[in-house]
Amino acid sequence: MQSEYFDVVIVGAGLSGIGAACRLKRDCPGKRFVILEARDAMGGTWDLFRYPGIRSDSDMHTLGYDFKPWRESKAIADGPAILNYIHETAAEHDIDRYIRYGQRIIRATWLSEDSCWTLEGRHGKSDRRFAIRCNMLLMCSGYYRYDRGHTPEFKGRERFGGEIVHPQHWPQDLDYRDKKVVMIGSGATAVTLLPEIAKQASHVTMLQRSPTYVVSWPDVDWIANFLRRILPAKLAYAITRWKNITMQQWTYRRSRVAPEKVKKQLLKWVQKELGPDYDVEKHFTPRYNPWDQRLCLVPNSDLFQAIRAGMASVVTDKIDTFTETGIRLQSGEELEADIIVTATGLELQVLGGVQFTVDGTPVDFSKTYSYKGIMFSDVPNLVSTFGYINASWTLRADLTADYFCRLVNHMDAGGYRQCTPRLRAEDEAMESRPWLTAFSSGYVQRALHLMPMQGDHEPWINPQNYRADRKMFREGEIADGALVFEYPDAPDHAALQPRKAG
């Protein structure tokens, strides 16, 4: 099977991949690159998810790219607006022509003697195979499976006579008008869906095992809109972005150092929204502290408005079984339903589910250490994008792309063909920690055993601090002693053999 060669391959044409390609084209001119996208369209999450009301849960002044101002009046944007923003960015930077759609990577094989990755995959759902070779590989494939969401086993599911829908695969012809809808889950997807469905359904019930922190926020940033009227677009955007980043980071730090005070304030706001007689303790008081899981954003109080109007309700209980006409709860209560929506979360996967091999040895990423949260011990020339859990995804994606370009240029300047994070003698005895800490969301906890480890000191950590990361990725020394650079013409084969970390 013949294979083309590129200097860089970017996997994924979503928000991260398009942003990375724009930077690569700008900062590493002359590099031959291609973007491989498994699906048939650009946009990633924002093209995949089509459920009613789909929107961001972060403001677009931080979820947007730092090089392209967000110009719409709504800061909390809907899915189509975000998808249009991604398409605009690609068109403005002439990125469209670098994308190959319907090319799913199955296997990635590294050979040190060639300083080269060989990527093998198939075209769409067919059996047609392809192979592409590259020196540097940048994974922007997201963090969850696109082909299926997480759906627990529900007793009696086969008995239910209505429709069961997962938001990740929403039927465009689903008719919920005047129907009774039970939505299982109370995370970001559920609180987004409920107000939209409630406009037409006869009633929507949000069924949760335990509550989630929910905070209302305006979908319009009046400061941003004012600044855009009086200042050049880029300057107005930069100021708003700085303002919102500062607010995000302050809120997160405050939640870490004074969780009880933050909890009290959040619940006070909910009680004010729903009235003094509503049982906030039962339905909106989580068992965990704020930011142990992401806060659920409710724009303009739409969720609370639906509850106040009697269009929707919240039930906190556990499921006993599905029945022919709905769901019976462990308390004995029965919820009637024509449609059941399983807003039960995502199914995480590591690096797009690609099988990696380094010099003949399969890579088990759970046995590697995370290098700065973007590379992996003993895995050469591979960078992976994973956004923040405590701030907007794109903030970290931007920094990762910046660092990737710095790394490529550093290798060119030194004539290097390989860069490999390696544990030094002083790193061998460090404590192993989970890749994500202090974050209890189920979708993360279910997959932590598949993730790389992190250590107890830099650079073997997965940082979650934008201000510190910005300095590290954009100004920090590339050749730090832990990232080992090597020449292609005289490889030390003994040194290049991968070893297990931990």
What do you see in this structure?
The protein has 502 residues and is an alpha/beta fold. It folds into two domains: 4-146 and 347-496, FAD/NAD(P)-binding domain, CATH 3.50.50.60; 157-342, FAD/NAD(P)-binding domain (3-Layer(bba) Sandwich), CATH 3.50.50.60. The protein is 29% helix and 21% strand. The longest helix is centred in the middle third of the chain and has 25 residues, at 233-257.
Summarize the structure.
The chain is of the alpha/beta class and 502 residues long.
CATH class of the largest domain: Alpha Beta
The largest β sheet comes out as: 9 strands, mixed
Q: Are there runs of 5+ residues with pLDDT below 50, and where? A: 490-502
The whole-number mean of residue pLDDT values reads 93
Radius of gyration: 24 Å
Number of strands: 23
Distance between the termini: 37 Å
Q: Give me the CATH architecture of the largest domain, please.
A: 3-Layer(bba) Sandwich
Helix content: 25-40%
Keywords:
FAD/NAD(P)-binding domain, five-stranded parallel sheet, nine-stranded mixed sheet, 502 residues, alpha/beta, 2 domains, 14 helices
Task: Set out the fold topology.
Layout: E1 4-11, H1 15-27, E2 33-37, H2 45-48, H3 60-63, H4 79-92, E3 99-101, E4 103-111, E5 116-123, E6 129-139, E7 163-165, E8 180-184, H5 188-198, E9 203-208, E10 214-217, H6 222-230, H7 233-257, H8 259-274, H9 280-283, E11 296-299, H10 302-308, E12 312-316, E13 319-322, E14 326-329, E15 334-336, E16 339-342, E17 355-358, E18 361-362, E19 370-371, E20 375-376, E21 382-384, H11 393-414, E22 418-421, H12 442-445, H13 466-475, E23 483-486, H14 493-496
Parallel strand pairs: 1-2, 1-6, 2-3, 4-17, 6-21, 7-16, 8-9, 8-16, 9-12, 10-11
Antiparallel strand pairs: 4-5, 5-6, 13-14, 14-15, 17-18, 19-20, 22-23
Helix pairs in contact: 1-11, 5-10, 6-7, 7-8, 11-13
